Amino acid sequence: MKSSRMKKVLSATVALMMIGASLPLAANAAGFDWSGFAGGFGTTGNENIGSDAGNGGNAQSGLNAKIKNDMPTTVPGGVEQSSRCKVENKTYYCKYTGKNKKCNVILPPNYTSSKKYPVMFVLHGIMGSENDMVSGMGVQELMTGLMASGKAEEFIVVTPNMFTSKTMNGPSGINEETCKEYDNFLYDVTESLLPFIKENYSVKEGRENTAITGFSMGGREAIYCGLMRPDVFGYVGGACPAPGITPGQDSFMVHPGCMQESEMKFRNVGPEPEVFMITGGTNDGVVGTFPQQYSTILTRNGVNHVYQSIPGGGHDANSVKPHLYTFMRYAFKGDGSGTSSGETHDDPPVITNPDENGWYFHCGFESTADGFTGRGSASVTTSNSTAYAGSKSLYVSGRQSAWNGASYSLDSSTFKAGNAYSFSAMVSYLEGDSTDKFHFTMQYTDGSGTTNYTKIATETVSKGKWVQLANKNFTIPAGASNVQIYVETDSSTTSFYVDEVIGAPAGTTIGESGGSNPQQPSGNTYPTNIKVNYNTQYHQIQFTWNAVPNAQNYGIAVYLAGKWRVQTQSISSSATSYVTPKNLTPGMSYKVAIAAKVNGKWDSANAIKNAVSVTVR
Ligand SMILES: [Ca+2]
Q1: What is the domain extent for residue 478?
Q2: Which of 133, 281, 410, 615 is close enough to 159 for a disulfide, judged by CB 3.0 to 4.6 Å?
Q3: E-assigned strands of 506-616?
């Protein structure tokens, strides 16, 4: 680093310290060369730092809890070794900007394409470049030393250039516009940079092999990327993270926030990271107490993370190196299960795990018997003789008694005794009397070990017609276990066909008639007239709906990766709108369900039925 630049930055820092550490203040910011903040001040050691690492944040379990008891505030002597890493400067195409971008790839000592390596992104500070974190912050020295001693996994580090703008080639200054273009790195790293690294290096894939951390603005963006995409990043860190993830103000600008404080938690798109570590220095004159404020917000939101406080640590390597020392030692060492925030909900989730139709299971018999078996002497097989939907149904034959039908075991993790569900089955027969009576029956073992039978639905069927056996609100008896549902006749032994057997949350209308026993008049337990507004500047979506009478709360769920995932279930009954977090990925489409809680119950079934599809603009 040029000494003149260092002098400027240092004098600014001193001035800031005098004003107070709580607010990062700097007059005439535009007059400084801010690249110094990206690469640090060239300090080499960890001078004058104490041993108190603070309270550790909200580390509750897993690796975060382990780190809490193993996060020295200085890097032990001898750990850093002369770099034996290889640095490659690369150019890749960024889909989001439609332009080329640059990054450095730091290969670990002894890198060989015959092995596969996890990847760690290390992000630079404001006004910085892909070169800033390559030296001066101990990245290579810690990699070399920790890998040589076996204290860290072998991994690849990628230092990108975070500036991700469609219109500009570089930052215009320390301002909101610049921060916003840094926020766009979220799209670059997930859509372009990570795929580029996977294509060009020998890389282990998956969130459990992908880490992200950074310094200052890079800390902010690493945390932001981690919060938004826990499905991509299994290890998330930030050293001296800059303000602006949540709304706030410093001397440079008012930060509108990437998300509200109440939203500062991991998006429900995957398991939470194995490690979530934030480090702040007590003498940081640039970002002040913002790192600790983040920790406080995360703790308030119940997010499992570890906060490390470096006594006397400034906005420099004295704070960054201890962060990297611990983050690198614990990266890629989780058991893959992810952590849980330990967040407790007073209410059951709006939706557990129904499919896109809002159903727990759906047997259409198009290729297999879908888990059905014959009862007694009956045998079951798929048949294309007739079908209610698709081209095949389940043919039940060889029956010697009326109870010899087709049976299906319910998954006890979804179907619980004492709870109500909606069940439906279509039935038909082609030979025999002109009409026949069919039962949809539940068999279960009660608390005393006795096998019991109870009717879900009964209908008379005309030969050659398909008739629905359904019950929208059938309660599995309390204490029931080994629960099966089956179709049988009342007295005949005729062969018959079954199709479209479906189990769903109570109240779900399946098919046209929806079956018997309708639970409640529709229209008053779920939001209707859902309207969607798009914000193209912030890539946000607003939903509005008509108020539901007597609603206690509203909730939002999004269908992602095969599941309805609850985003929030605490929207006040006085609100009939919801705004997504900012900076969703443009072009991504989502299915969104809005549910209401009335009389203590969530009508998730109708919420899913009325789900709206949106595409981020
Ligand atoms: Ca079928």
Answers
A1: 361-505
A2: 133
A3: 531-535, 540-544, 551-560, 563-572, 577-579, 589-598, 601-602, 612-615
Model confidence pLDDT, tens digit, residues 387-420 = 999 899 999 999 999 999 999 999 888 899 998 9
Residue 34 and residue 174 in contact, taking contact as beta carbons nearer than 8 Å: yes
Q: How far is the CA of 501 from the centre of ligand 1 (A)?
A: 9
The total of structural domains in the chain comes to 3
Quick check: 426 and 388 in contact, CB under 8 A? Answer: yes
CA of 424 from ligand 1 middle (Å) equals 14
CATH number reported for the structural domain that contains residue 85 in this entry: 3.40.50.1820
My answer on whether 545 and 487 are in the same domain is no
Residues 285 and 203 reside in one and the same domain: yes
Identify whether residues 467 and 563 lie together within a single domain.
no
Residue 29 Cα to ligand 1 midpoint, Å, equals 68
Q: pTM for the complete prediction?
A: 0.58
Which residues share a beta bridge with 489? 438
Residue appearing with tokens 């046209």: 512
Tokens in use for 483?
Answer: 């629960």
pLDDT digits (tens, 9 = 90+) for 312-365: 999 999 999 999 999 999 999 987 555 544 333 333 334 456 677 778 899 999
Q: Does one domain contain both 569 and 604?
A: yes
DSSP 19: H
Distance 189 CA to ligand 1 centre (A): 43
Which of 441, 470, 505 is the endpoint of a domain? Answer: 505
* The residue type at 241: P
Residue 352 lies in a domain: no
223 torsion bin: left (phi>0), alpha (psi -120 to 50), beta (else): alpha
